[in-house]
Sequence to fold (150 residues):
Amino acid sequence: METFSILNSRKRAIIALIHSVFFLALAAVQAAVSHAAPLSFRRSRPVGELVLLAIYVVVTTVLLLLLKASDCAKEKLYFALCAASASFGLVRIVMGDGVLHVNAMRVLFLGCAVVIGVLILRTHTMQAQLQMEVDAPSLATGPAPSAETV
Fold:
């Protein structure tokens, strides 16, 4: 049986899956409509780009730390795909959209992360069903009779 260290409950797996689907949709919209230019300090307002750069650095770092802390192969793959997507977002901020088709890669990585997230959620659901089947016979028979009722 697989032991998850981070996504160790059905609730956490659902939350992670919701985040992945949201960021997949965001990356798909950015791929369709946005054409980012490379980071430049010569523009009139580079502050927005620097804030976005800082966010991507923090998110990528956190995802890499989660990758390191995870135990199960599915969990490691999930966090590796999410970290790869975030790092490609970082590359997009620094180098622009023209490099390596970064938006398409982000969508691909997050799409794969969603598939792995669904598999993780399915694993938790199957474990919960098995646990219910194990607990069901003891619930059906009720508590053992005490000495007073016999």
